Amino acid sequence: MHIYCSKQHANTVGNRFCIQCGESLPLPQGEIIASRYQILRQLGQGGFGRTYLAEDLQQSHQKCVLKEFAPQVDKPEDIQKAKELFEREASVLKKLQHPQIPKFHISLSTKFGQKDFFFLVQDYIEGDTYWDLLDKRLSYGQNTFSEEEIVSLLKQMLPVLSYIHSKDVIHRDISPDNIILRGNTPVLIDFGGVKQLPASQGFWMTQLGANRTLLGKKGYAPEEQIRQGKAFPCSDLHSLGVSALVLLTGKEPLNIYDTYQGNWRWGTEIKVSQGLERILKKMVAYKPSDRYQNAEQVIKDLQKLSPASAPVMNKVNTNITKIKTMIAAPARRAGNLHSRTQMAVQALPLPIWMRPFAVSAVTTTAIVLVCAGTWGVVNAVVKGVSSISLPTISLPSLPSGNSDSSEAPRSSSNNRNGNISSRRSSLQIPEAFFIQTVNDIFHSRNPQLGGRNLSAGAEDEALRQQWLNIGKELLDKLEQANLSGNARQRLGSYGGQDYQNWERRANAGEFGNYTIKQLNTDTNRKFDSLFPGQRRGKLNQPTFGQIWYAIAADKVSKLERGN
User: Fold this and answer.
1) What b/e readout covers 95-134, taking b as 16+ CB neighbours within 10 angstroms?
2) Is 538 within a domain?
3) Residues labelled as active-site residues
4) Containing domain of residue 27, as a range?
């Protein structure tokens, strides 16, 4: 039996680090940390490390959550600084005592080999996240959340935000994934407060100015947080407002936000009563100064809502998949292109050196996917807010056609970019899916980059070429897969509901004697021939998982034609 690192390198059970790349490996079931916490299973993995379900051997085997922080630094002074900052974050988290926040128990550190690991121990919250609840409703053909349910959720969550903001803490990552329904009460989770240390790039966002780690899901987090690394109480209100819109509509932020005009699609995709629309509009306003400034203001307006106002239910989107946020790509000025199209920030994973090409095609496709970078668990960052004034947010200006050559790729690079883009377009492969998959592969092969963007300078020429080569390889594989046009067009939108539908139909005999097990076997065989070894680890749903689904979808289509 083997265990695998994130790059799918095989390792013998019992190894603490990958023998090929040195990455720390998941803690095995039964491992005891600090002679007290026994690992039951891994819950998730993010940029800062992994999260485990454990039991406290000193507290009647009570279940708890261990959040790992594995700093990727080697210098003794950096490790010492990491310890100091970790303890500082933990001390702030410890003061958060609220029934709708997981209780913080203790912080601890230990060594595996020569590397230092840190853990936060918190309550384990039983229940489904609101994303899970929405997904279940859509999977079974039920309605999305009603206005009454959303108003109730807001009234229950806003006092929690009021509490943490009074402690000068901003969550920074509110989304349906980070709210769990325990009984009849929502609980705000993922107050991790720590982030993996990129080598030589600083520690936490609150400690560094130039080398900040940006936290928050794209599409939920507002612009000032994503682009400038600033967050305020109204930033959390924005994220909560977007979460409400997603639960109301059952649609991704991309589908309810007009990236060209910079407006939410009120009245078309978002159909709610006037009273609730007025409140949500103010919560998700673009400028921080246009939003509610504290949770109490929202609560006051919610209390004014007429109970007799009839909610408008939204049509269920049965093709919803795990949230991926789409935003417009910044690039060189092209004619009278409306400035509000450019909503992206400097931290976008789309290579900067590809952005000039993106503008040339902006009239036909100006949307690129932002890689979210967390898996199931995300973090909050502690930040003092009492003395901070709200910034004036302005959209980034586009560089003029006279930009210095150091800021723009060479024409030959543009040609290569264009060739890849036109080839992708001719194959009808969604740009969002393509960019995210290439980014994921590229950064998995170059962990030393710490997820940083590539520049247009000569120092990154080899890395830019590698990115382009990966894109070409991916297109080669997708051509080799011989997928139908419909299957390629749906890449990025497949989800668990598709598989559940296939399973239901197979069990009902709609495919004759062909079983769901045979579908799995045939799909795995073809997938493995294209991407050998990739399936040994859990497939990433937004990238390789989409290709697996597309192969299966084509097989189902052939079965349908045969019957």
Assistant:
1) ebeeebbbebbebbeeeeeebbbbbbbbbbbebebbbebb
2) yes
3) 173
4) 2-123
